[in-house]
Amino acid sequence: MEIYKNENRKCECWKCELQEKCVYKDKYQRLGRENSGALGKCAKLSENNGVLQY
């Protein structure tokens, strides 16, 4: 299985191996805080170090 790294910070859930467990899958809140109103909840964002957010 390929590990999705989200290096471009696009939070492409369909590529991520965590999509079955992630409560922010396909939700706007997953995007990085550089996006207006987003919360940076994607586990693959560098600031979250691969940890699922709840």
Quick recap of the structure?
0% of the residues lie in helices and 0% in strands.
Write up what this structure looks like:
19% of the residues are buried. The protein has one domain. It contains no helices and no strands. The protein is globular. By secondary structure, the protein is largely without helices or strands. The N and C termini lie far apart (25 Å).
Quick tags:
single chain, 54 residues, 0% helix, globular
Number of helices: 0
What coarse outline follows from CA principal-axis ratios? globular
The proportion of strand residues reads: under 5%
pLDDT average, as an integer? 96
Structural class category: little secondary structure
User: How many separate domains?
Assistant: 1
Major sheet characteristics: none
Low-pLDDT runs: none
Gyration radius (Cα, Å) is 10 Å
How many strand segments? 0
Helix content: under 10%
Distance between the termini: 25 Å
